[in-house]
Amino acid sequence: MLRYIIKRVLEILPIIFVVSILSFLFIHFIPGDPARLVAGKDATLQDVQNVREELGLNDPIWKQYISYMGNLLQGNLGTSLKTGLPVSDMFSSRFMPSIYLTFFAMIWATIIGLLIGAISAVFKNKWPDYLGMVTAVSGISLPGFWLGLLLIQLFSVQLGMLPTGGSEGFKSYILPSLTLGAGIMSMIARFTRSSLLETLQTDYIRTGRAKGLKESVVIIQHALRNSLIPVVTIAGLQFGFLLGGSVVVETVFSFPGMGRLLIDSIAFRDYPVIQSALLLFAIEFIIVNLVVDILYSVLNPKIQIQS
Amino acid sequence: MLQRKGWKILLLVVFCAIFMVACSDDKKETNSSEGKGEKEPTTEKKEELVVAVNENFISMDPHNTGDTNSNSVQSAMLEGLLGFDDEGQIINVLAEDYSVSEDALVYTFKLHQGIKFHDGEDFNAEAVKVNFERIMKDKSLRLNSRGFSLIKKIETPSEYEIKITLKETYSPMLTRFGVAKIISPKSVKENPADIPKKPVGTGAYKFGEWVQGDHLTIERFDDYWGKGDRVKKITFKPVPESGSRVAMLKTGEAGVIYPVPSQNIAQVEGDKNIQVFKVPSTIAHYVSINTYKKPFNDPKVRQAFNYAVDKDAFIKVVNFGLGVPLDSIISSKTIYYKKQEAYAQNIEKAKQLLKEAGYPDGFETEIWGNTNSDTMKGMQFIQQQLKQIGVKVEIKSMEEGTLSDEIYGAQTPDDAKLQMWYVSWSSYASDVTNATKPLFHSESFPPNGANTAYYNNKEVDKWMDEANSISDKAKQEELYGKIQETVYKDAPWIFLGVDEIVYGVRSDVEGVVVEPTGGLDVKDANFK
Asked: What are the transmembrane regions (chain A) (predicted)?
C-alpha cells in the first residue's frame, strides 16, 4: 500500500509538468493584453510598452516559461500583475477557508445523501422514497445563488442567528456549506439509491437473506458497502471540483475563496495568479483521485492495488 | 474482519477531518467575537464601524493604486500634500500653502510643521522628497509614475519647504500631488516590500490587519495632527454580492455599504434605521462613434444619432433613474465644466439630418461593448432608439480583454474596425486634462490613447495644448469652454448620461461622505 502511494505521488510530477505547459500556453494564447490592463485606460502607447517591458512580456514565450518554472522550483509563485503582491500571499488567506468549506459541505452532503439514498432504496416506491427523492431533486434544482440568498434572508436577516458572510468562526461556515453541499447531497442520494437497488437484486443478497441474516445486516454490511463504489467515484469528482472554489457561493457569502480569485485574475489576465491557481487545482485533483482509488480497494478487496 | 477494518479507516479519516476543521476555527472565533457584538443594540458607544464595499482591495501601496476601493481605505490612513474636498476639488492637506509658477513648471509647497508618521518619524520636506523619488525611480509603480516621470529636480530650500521643477508642463500635476499620498520615509528605505501590505502614513487611522479577500481593519491614530472625533476602529469588507451587502446593512452587520445596488434602493429606503445618499459622479456614459470612417465622417449623421436618442429614457431604463443627462463632453462635477445645449430627442430632425447626409433610408452598423449586463442593456437601448430613424444596429458584446485587443490592436485609423463603442469614462473632478486629452486629442488615437472616435480637430488640439502649458486659471477656463462647445457640436459621441453614486448608512453613523470620483471618505466617521 505504502509503495503504491509513493508511486502514485511520483506520478504526479510529470502530470504537473504537462499541466504547467498547457495552462501556460492557454493563458498566453487567449486574447487580451495584461500590459494594457495594468497600464490603465488613459495610458499612452509608451506607457503600455514600458509596462510590457517591465513585466517581461516582450520575451519569447519559451523564455517566459523557463523563468516562470525556474522561480516555481525555488518555491516562488511570482508576483501578481494586478496587486503587486506575492501570489503566495494572495493564496494563503484563501486556501484554507476553501478547504474547510469543501470539507464541511462534503461531510454533511455525504452523510445525509447516503442516508436519504439508502432509505429511499429500502422503501422503494413508498412514501419515505418519495420524500427522499423530492428532497434530492429540490437540492439539485435550486440554483446556488438563490438558495444562498434565501438562507441569508431567513437565518441572518429575519432570525439574526448567523452572519451573512465572511469566514470568521464556525458560524460563518454554516450557510455557505449548506448552499454548496445541497447539490452534492442530492447527487449522492440519487446515486446511492440506484446503486443500492441494483445491488439488492443480486444473488449474494438473496443468499444472505436465505441463510437468515438480519435484514439490517444484509443492507448495511453487504448491500450498502457493495453499492458504494459509484458513490465514492462521484463524491470524489465533486470534491475535486469544489476544492477549485465555487464562484457562486463565494460571491453570495463574500467568502474569501479560490474560485473568485481565479475568475478575477482571468478577467485581468493576471498570468502568475492564473498559472499558480491552475497548478494548485491540478494537484488537489490528483490527490483526491488517489484517495478515491485507495477507498475503492478498502471498499472492495477484490480491487487490487498493484504496486 | 477485513470489512470492519475498512470502515474504521473511513471513519477515522472523517473524524480527523472534522477535528482539523473544528480546531482551526476555534482560534479564529476568538478573534472576531468583539466585532459581532454589533447586532444587539447597546447603550454603550460602539467602537467598530463595518464598511461593506463591492470589490476586493487590490493594493495598499498609495503609489500604485488604480481602484476606487483601495483608494478609499488608503485615504483614511494616508495623506498627500494636497487632497480633495467633498466636491472633488483640490484642497491643502499636508501642505499649508502652495504656488505654481506662471510657466506651469515650478511647484512650491510650504509644509505643515510638527506632523508625525504613525511610526514616529517626522514629516518634513526630506520625507516628501523620498516619496517622490520613489515614484519617479521605481518602475513597478506604473500607475502613479505619470506626471512624476516628468520631474526634473526636487529641491528642499528649508526643512518645511519643497520645490519641484518639471521638464515640461503637465496640468494634471496638482491632481497628481493630491493622489500621491506620503508614506513614512523609513518604510520606503527599510521595508519597501511591506508598503503594499501595510502602509505607514500620517492619517487619522493607522493600519491594523488585512486578511485578503476577507477584511481590512484600520485603527484610530490617537496622535493625529488634525482635529475631530472619530470611531476607534473601522473594518472594511469586500462583499461582491449586492443582495448580501444590503442584508448586512439591514441586520446592522455593516454600518455603511457602498454602493447600494440600484435595484435594491427601494428595499432600504423605507427603513427607519437606514439612510440612503445619492451623489453625482464623474462617470460619464457615452457611445464613441468612429468619425474617421463612412458614414460617420459626416457630422450630420452623428448629430442625427444624438437627436434620435432620448437621454431621460436612457437614465430611466438603463440606470434605474439614477443620473443626469451628459450635457457637455465632461461631467458637471469636473472643473471648468460648461453646460451645453443638450440634444433633445427629435426624431423628425434626426431623420432630416440623415437625409441631408445622403442616408434617407438609414444604414446598417454595429455597436461594441463588454459583457456586463448593464452594458448589454445600454446597447439594446441604443439599438432600439436608432431603429426609429431607420438605422439597424448589430450588438457585439465581447469579453473585456478581447474587446481591448480589438480596439487597441488597430495601429492606424485605417485599420480600425470599430464603428461604435458603448463605454464610460471617469477621471478626477479636478483633472480636466484627463477628461479630455485622451479622448479628443488627435495624438490619442488608439493604440496611443482612448480617442476611439478618432476625433481630429486641429483647433481643439491647439486649445488643449495651450491650456496644458499655462497655470492661469481664467485662461484655462476660457479655453476649456471653447473646447466643450466645439466638440459637443461635432458630436463624436452619442452623449448619454452621468451616473449617480448611491451609498447606504445606518442612522446611528455620521461623517461618511462619497466624493464624485467614487472614493469613500470615512476618516471622520463616528457613531452618534
From this structure: 12-30, 99-123, 130-152, 172-191, 228-253, 273-299
Say if CB A152 and CB A164 are below 8 A apart.
yes
Task: Specify the pTM.
Answer: 0.83
CB contact under 8 A, A221 and B3: yes
Interface test with A, best of B23, B71, B136, B244 (most A CBs within 10 A): B244
3-state class (DSSP) for residue A212: coil
Q: Å from A252 to nearest chain B CA?
A: 5
Chain A positions touching B25 (Cβ under 8 A) are: 100, 169-170, 173
Cα distances (angstroms) measured from residue B476 to each of B111, B167, B327? 27, 21, 20
C-alpha closest to that of B77 among B179, B200, B162: B200
A222 touches chain B (CB under 8 A): no
Going by C-alpha positions, the residue among B282, B286, B326, B284 that lies closest to residue B422 is: B286
pLDDT bin (cut points 50, 70, 90) of residue B242 is confident
Q: What residue spans of B273-414 are helical by DSSP H?
A: 299-308, 311-319, 347-356, 373-387, 400-408
Which chain B residue lies closest to A295 (C-alpha atoms)? B10
Give B392-421 pLDDT, tens digit per residue: 999 999 988 889 889 998 999 999 999 999
Residues whose CB falls within 8 Å of the CB of residue B137, separated by 6 or more in sequence, listed in order: none
The reported pLDDT for the residue numbered A11 is: 82
Cross-chain residue pair B247–A163, CB shorter than 8 Å: no
Q: What cell numbers appear for B428 in the block? A: 478626477
Is A76 touching B (CB cutoff 8 A)?
Answer: no
Q: Which CATH superfamily is domain B205-273+507-527 in?
A: Periplasmic binding protein-like II (3.40.190.10)
Chain A contact for B25 (CB, 8 A cutoff): yes
Report CA-CA distances (Å) from A71 to A67, A269, A282, B197, B286: 6, 19, 19, 22, 44
pLDDT (average), residues B177-193: 94
B448 Cβ under 8 Å from any chain A Cβ: yes
In a domain, A290, yes or no: no
Q: Where are the domains of chain B?
A: 79-194, 205-273+507-527, 280-500
Q: With a cut of 70, which residues of chain A have pLDDT below it?
A: 304-307
